[in-house]
Amino acid sequence: MAEIHHRLVIRAPIERVYEALTTVEGLRRWWTTDVNGAPDEAGAIVQFRFGTMGPDMRVEALTRPTRVEWLCVNHARQAEEWIGTRFAFALSEANGAVVVRFQQSGWREASDFLAHCSTKWATFLLSLRESVETGAGRPFPYDLQIA
Fold first, then answer.
1. Domains of the chain (ranges, CATH numbers)
2. DSSP code per residue over 50-93
3. pLDDT tens readout for residues 99-143
4. Nearest-CA neighbor of 30 among 94, 102, 83, 79?
5. Exposed, middle or buried by CB within 10 Å (0-12, 13-18, 19+), for 18?
């Protein structure tokens, strides 16, 4: 199976990074402005919409302030390849900053769509860093376009 991996350093307290991943307000500042659900509750379904498409994620695990895990259980219009993939954000502190290790695992195969999603995740993770460090990220629909 194929996977997406990224590593990013954010200069902010670890709790602030964790909250950006586990609150509706935090997620709306860096990934998409259309978020509904309870991202701070294990077992909850959180809907992320990018116009008419987007994933429904089940919150699989929360370990404050070091780990967030989701499972894609549905996808509105397109991206069936995401269904069943797992997302992990592992946070650790190093040299006064937070290291974020992101992984999307469980892809059936390496493909052009996986490559597109990997690049897109890189832009959204940079948006996460901007959001946490400055208070303003670039969530959808204000995100960097790559295609």
1. 2-134 (3.30.530.20)
2. BTTBEEEEEEEEEETTTEEEEEEEEEESS-GGGTT-EEEEEEEE
3. 999 999 999 999 999 999 999 999 999 999 999 999 999 999 999
4. 102
5. buried
Q: Which tokens sit at 140?
A: 């959808």
For residue 22, what are the contacts with CB-CB under 8 A and spacing of at least 6?
39, 40, 62, 64, 68
Secondary structure class of 138 (helix, strand, coil): coil
**56-73 burial string, b = 16+ CB within 10 Å, else e?**
bbbbeebeebebbbbbbe
User: Based on the number of CB atoms within 10 Å of its own CB, is 50 exposed (0-12), middle (13-18) or buried (19 or more)?
Assistant: buried
Using an 8 Å Cβ cutoff, are 2 and 114 in contact? yes
Structure tokens at 139: 């969530």
Q: What is the C-alpha to C-alpha distance for residues 29 and 94, in angstroms, rounded to an integer?
A: 24
